[in-house]
Amino acid sequence: MSNVEKEAKKKTKMSRINIRISSVLNDWLDEQTRLTGVPKSTICHLAIMNYVQQQQTVGVMADIAKKMEKGEKGVSYDL
Predict the structure, then answer these.
(1) Is residue 64 within 8 Å of 77, Cβ to Cβ?
(2) Tens-digit pLDDT profile for the chain (79 aa)?
(3) What's the pTM value of the predicted model, to 2 decimals?
(4) In sequence order, what DSSP letters do the residues of 38-70 get, joined into one string?
């Protein structure tokens, strides 16, 4: 196995979690899975990724606001 293949495997290593959700959310996930063909686990994965991005954006925006208050110029961030 090449180094590239090993690195790719590291990046795609997945972990399993168990969560409890309401029957309403479960019904919604079932319906979305039926309509889209996207598995529940993928929908949950995407929702968590979206949440992480939102939290990171909030943190970056807070940093930018602080720097703007201090009058710093040339503030730039890569999200």
Answers:
(1) yes
(2) 666 566 656 677 888 999 999 999 999 999 999 999 999 999 999 999 999 999 888 777 877 877 788 886 665 655 5
(3) 0.61
(4) --HHHHHHHHHHHHHHHHHHHHHHHHHHHHHHT
